[in-house]
Design goal:
Blueprint (H helix, E strand, L loop, with lengths): L1 H15 L6 E7 L4 H11 L13 E6 L9 H10 L20 H7 L3 E9 L3 H7 L8 H12 L3 E5 L32 H7 L3 E3 L2 H6 L5 E4 L23 H12 L6 E7 L1 H7 L3 H24 L3 E6 L3 E2 L3 E3 L15 E5 L6 E5 L5 E2 L3 E7 L7 E4 L1 H11 L7
Parallel strand pairs: 1-7, 1-8, 2-15, 3-4, 3-7, 4-6, 5-6
Antiparallel strand pairs: 2-14, 8-14, 9-13, 10-12, 11-12
Helix pairs in contact: 2-11, 3-5, 3-12, 9-11, 10-11
Length: 402
């Protein structure tokens, strides 16, 4: 009996020592506030179901402000990636324009593999804040160059080929396509795709080649700009990426997980934000459903690999969205801001409408959900900078150059 008592005491002591997270997967539903999550849930699984991104044991409430009350994606992602509040438009730099070390860079220094995945340009503000340092988010070719030379991100999957090729060199995607004649190569740092190849990256531009690739270093660019088209609602907005977010997520995890030391991966669904800017609820929900399928893939991986932390958060809310009953009263406006719907509540005869109050970002708190190793560090209410601190602690990372 004494022996058993000793064993169980030892066991209980062991269970208190939380294993470090060898792997971390951060999902950013860009622009996805609490109401967005609920609208996606109602449309996808109904009142009695829940989303993969909600079915997690740990929840947090995140304050999203930058140095001003309403943030943009660049400042919000910098806060999450580096733990500092900064000005809107800043990528990986503080309020004094000084570079700040990111959690991805620390993971790379610890010998882990790293990846960035998005349906936006891979050089857009959210992924950029994890792997680059520029004083203005519009410097997308500088960001691409830094991914290759400085942060050495192993897996880069998204859109934005236009920033990797100089003007006059269209790459795999034609300049001035019919869908959006304004799109054309405009890189300012030479031919960065050729540079990537010289550095050992396999370059892919479609789903079939992505699937086939066995390379540990992967650059996949699947569109000139974003992997969808957003215009004022009803004027040709499309959400139908050539490679789906779930497929990109799965490939990134498969590629990065071959590293025995673990990996850090950030996956962004940009469509939620862009479609909210256009007050297009139908396409916002479609993008949100793709995010949720991607989260399920990560959860399945984490179930088999207990040393993995998965978290889902937004950088900020967009659109001032609310869920309303179906009636003929629209309290909030006309044009693109008038009510959208009605939408069917899945698995029922009920319906709901979505109303918008802005085409910009909101300054409200956003929910965070987490599961896996170190997830308890993300419980409670906190600033977005705490996400950096929690992930750093969960992974046991140190800044070697402090």
């Amino acid at each position: 009996m004494g022996f058993n008592h000793f064993a169980s005491a030892k066991e209980s002591h062991k269970s208190q020592v939380q294993p470090k997270a060898k792997n971390v997967i951060i999902f950013v539903g860009d622009g996805m506030g609490a109401a967005h999550r609920e609208a996606i849930r109602l449309a996808t699984v109904g009142l009695k179901g829940d989303l993969a991104m909600n079915s997690m044991p740990v929840t947090g409430l995140v304050h999203t402000s930058s140095l001003t009350p309403v943030t943009d994606s660049a400042a919000a992602a910098t806060a999450m990636a580096s733990g500092v509040k900064t000005y809107n438009g800043a990528v990986g730099v503080d309020g004094n324009k000084k570079s700040v070390k990111t959690v991805l860079e620390m993971a790379e220094e610890a010998g882990k593999s790293t990846g960035l995945v998005t349906t936006s340009q891979i050089t857009d503000a959210t992924p950029a804040a994890f792997g680059a340092h520029v004083t203005d988010r519009s410097k997308q070719s500088d960001i691409a160059k830094q991914y290759l030379e400085n942060s050495k991100v192993d897996v880069l999957l998204g859109g934005g080929e236009d920033f990797w090729y100089p003007a006059g060199n269209p790459g795999a995607f034609e300049d001035n396509p019919v869908k959006d004649p304004s799109e054309q190569s405009k890189g300012t740092q030479g031919n960065l795709v050729e540079k990537a190849k010289r550095l050992g990256y396999k370059y892919v531009t479609n789903a079939a080649d992505l699937k086939k690739s066995k390379s540990k270093k992967l650059l996949g660019l699947f569109a000139n700009e974003e992997m969808f088209e957003q215009r004022p609602e009803g004027e040709g907005d499309l959400y139908n990426p050539a490679v789906s977010l779930p497929d990109m997520t799965k490939k990134a995890i498969d590629t990065l997980s071959s590293n025995k030391k673990g990996f850090f991966l950030m996956v962004e669904e940009e469509g939620i934000d862009e479609m909210s800017h256009e007050n297009n609820a139908e396409k916002m929900i479609k993008a949100g459903q793709q995010l949720d399928k991607s989260v399920q893939i990560a959860k399945d991986y984490a179930k088999k690999h207990r040393d993995t932390l998965v978290l889902v958060v937004a950088d900020h809310e967009c659109g001032g969205l609310t869920i309303e009953e179906v009636n003929d009263k629209d309290e909030s406006g006309d044009g693109i801001s008038k009510e959208d719907g009605p939408f069917k509540v899945a698995n029922s005869n009920d319906k709901f409408t979505i109303d918008w109050t802005t085409t910009g970002h909101g300054g409200v708190n956003v929910p965070l959900t987490a599961i896996g190793a170190g997830s308890e560090l993300l419980s409670g209410s906190y600033e977005n900078t705490h996400i950096f601190e929690a992930v750093k602690q969960a992974m046991g990372l140190k800044d070697k150059h402090k």
